[in-house]
Structures are given as C-alpha cells and as structure tokens.
Amino acid sequence: MNANTLTLRRRSFLSNLGALALPLTINKLYAASNVQKPNVLFVLTDQWRYSAFSHADNGDALVKTPCIDQFASEGTRWRRSYSTTPVCTPERATLVTGRYAHQHGAMQNNRMLPPGNRCLAEIFRQAGYATHYTGKTHYDGEGRYDIIDPEGNTGWIPGDSAREWRRRGFQTYQGFNRGHQYITTNPSDVAMFDDDGRVMTEVLNRYEPEFQRELAEDFIRAHRTRPWLCYLSWGPPHTPYNEVPSAYKTYTVTAADRRSNVSGNTGASNLALYFAQCMALDDQFGQLMQFLENEGLKDNTLVVFTSDHGDMHYSHNLTDKSKPEEESVRVPLIMRLPGTTKPGHVSEVPIGGVDVMPTLLGLCGLPVPKTCAGVNKANSARGSSMPEIDSIYCVHNKPWRAVVTDRYKLILRDSTAPLTINSVNDLYDLVADPYELNNLKDDPAHATIKQQLFDRILQWISETDDPYPGAVTLSKFMYTN
C-alpha cells in the first residue's frame, strides 16, 4: 500500500464521518436546540493507578504528570475513585452501561457485552450527538477486531442490527477489540482498523496513542457544527511497558522510591517503564487539551479522564490487577466542564466506575436510564459534598467483594456460604493507613464500623441480585465471540 492510497483512505474516512449522520428528521430536531449542548471527550487509559500522578495524595514520588495536573486544577477530581471491577472487560463494560458486571454480563476478560444493555453512546446518539470511538474496546468477545466486522463481511451498514448492537451506539469507529502494541514496525502486525475494517498501516513506526490522538482530533474537526461524543481509549500504561518512545525512558527506580507496602525493589525496571508510559500519555493528553483550546472548544466540552483499573507493581507482593488493594482498584477520575464543574475541587464523595455514566449524563443534562445501577454524582463535580452518598462497592466475580467509604474499606474474600461477620477478611482505615498495612478486622475499637459495613455490603448484595458468595455462571450470557 503506497502513501497516496493511505492519504486517500484518511480523506475518505473524514468524508464518511459526515455521511454517517442521523436521518434528516432527527437532524432537524437537534439543529436549533442542541447547538449549546456540551461536547464530550472521554479519555480512558488502561491500568493507570491513582497514585501514579504528581498531584496524587500518597502518590508515587518519581512520576511527573504536569499536563494532567493542570487539567485537574481546572476541574474536579475525586479522591475516592474506584474501579467497580478492576479487570479490563468487566470495567469497560461497566463504564458504558452504568451497571455492575453481574448485571451487564461481561463478567471476565474476553467476554462479549450481551445485547439488551443500554449503552452510553446510544443515549448521546439519540440526543443528536455524533458518536465516535477510537482505540481499544475489549468488550466484544475474543476476537481482535470483531467489533468492526462481526459477520465476516467488509464494511458497516447503518441499520443492520447484527452490527448495530455491537457498535453500542458509536456511529464511527477506529481501533480494535483487544490486545496491546504501542510501536509496531511490521506491517503484518498492525491491528488498528478503520471504520470499514481496513488495516490502518499509517500507525506503523508511530507511538500508537499519538496516532489515536490525531484520529480523535480529526473526528472533532469534522463535527464542529453539531454536538459530539468522542471516546478515546489508550492502551498504556498497560504492558508492554517497554514500547514507549525513548525520550521518555528517563526514570530509574530505587528501593527508596517504592511505596511503603513494597518489600525490596523487585520489578524496578518495569515500574520505571510504567512511569515512562505515564509521562508519554501525559504529554499526549496535554496536546489534546491544547487542541481543544486552539479550536475554541474548551469552554463547551466536558472532558472525562479515567482508567479501567490500576497496577499492583509488587505492593503487598502482588502484581497486575483484579485485586481489592488500592494499587489495583483505585483509579483516577477527573472531569472538567468550564462553568459547570468546580475548578480545583477535590471531591471526597466516593465514586465508582458504575457511577461514571450517570454522572456525565447528569452533567450534560441528559436522562439517566433506569437500567443504570450507578448513581448520578454530578453535584459532587459541581462542588457539593453529597452527604447522602457514603459508600461504593467493588467486585470481582467469585473471589471478593468490597465496600469503600470516604475513610474505610471492608473486604470479603470468603467464598463460602452463608456469609457472617466472620467472613470479613480485611478492614482498613484508608486515612490513617493509606498503604493498607494495619488490618483492623479483629480490633475491638472498630467492631461497630466493621458490623455497619458488613451490613451494608449484605444489603447491596441483596439489592443488586449479586449471587456472591456463589459465582455467576458465565454461560448464562451465551456470548464469547
């Protein structure tokens, strides 16, 4: 494929963005009234833990994120923000449905989000927004690009229900379902696909997040005359840590740099590269924010920045994600909509991934569907304390359940029935003990709070029809591919 062909394909995509608009009758409905509706830029990262920002309390000392720090100073960030299910597929499905994993059905990695779920982009699309996805989805089964071409055909036909429900409301798409590669040098390894399923070899020898940022900017430029939702999903700082431009490989991690719950310096080289990925993404995010300002779009764009889960990096001698410990389950969440969110506000309201969809719908003045299990916490983004919100819940299929307040975390790891107060495995005071080194589950001074939190989690299990301590039968949902 030559450069001219690639240029034509890029131009063809930009042209087709306009051609995929909603029917004229709907265009007429929103043309007059929706001009001032806020645009939405949703930036999702993969495996970026809460502590890996220079603005974070009890943060990783080495990491520097000046662009995101500046962004946080202009909007609201949540101190107690948690992944509802700290694994890629379940949490990504939660972010676009506002439902817990045992409700939406994508209970573990590489499971398909079943039909019948009311998804974020569908609501925005029906409200007259142009909707676009760039990057990794990872809620469309085991295939790498099934979301592009589910029937084995070329292209996407608007109105074709077999494709339509798998788009989950996104009219245009550039990306892939699952996998991670950030600097690809072999054409046969390219796994980015454009809207008609063609391989985007333009990404060759590029840093993938930079390429995806440019694609998102192209979409935004093409839709200046109507409100838009652009969902940009970056792969880093998830492995492979080493696939990052060499200019960012400036970190050296010593034992003194590690978190207080890490023994020794195991995995130091990987952590240094993880920080390098964070710094590289911070730079890309800064360029994206500058683009919005240069285009005159900053003041009418709600920007959401978050991650699907964190990364342990040997805290408590654990690795990766899927754990209830802070490094795995606590994630960044920052929202900025000038004139609506409170600049520089650090909210103490507990918030989970399940709350993100209803909250951003609330900020945009759109109705929250009854299918959402999460809570609209838009008032906390505006600066209110919301004292009625005192806890959130985190889950991981069969292994564990947790309840988190603005101060405490209680964890159940006992999968045997019936659940009793003796099923409580962990209780931490996250204010006094942010590294979770002092388990208070047997401390008489905390017996009352232990009972209160245990009662709450039992109530939540009942109210949400959570089968815990049993496990959801994955075959119940029938979708793997």
First-residue to last-residue Cα separation: 30 Å
CATH class of the largest domain: Alpha Beta
Which structural class is indicated by helix and strand composition? Answer: alpha/beta
Q: Low-confidence parts, pLDDT < 50 over ≥5 residues? A: 1-34, 146-162, 475-481
Q: How many domain units?
A: 2
**Oligomeric state of shown chains:** single chain
Proportion of strand residues: 5-15%
Strand order of the largest sheet: 5-4-6-1-7-8-2-9
Global Rg? 22 Å
Order of helices and strands: HHEHEEHHHEHEHEHEHEEEHHEEEEH
Determine the CATH superfamily of the largest domain: Alkaline Phosphatase, subunit A
Largest sheet: 8 strands, mixed
* CATH overall fold name of the largest domain: Alkaline Phosphatase, subunit A
Shape: globular
Mean pLDDT reading? 89
Q: How many helix segments?
A: 13
Question: Total strand count, please?
Answer: 14
- Give the name of the CATH architecture of the largest domain: 3-Layer(aba) Sandwich
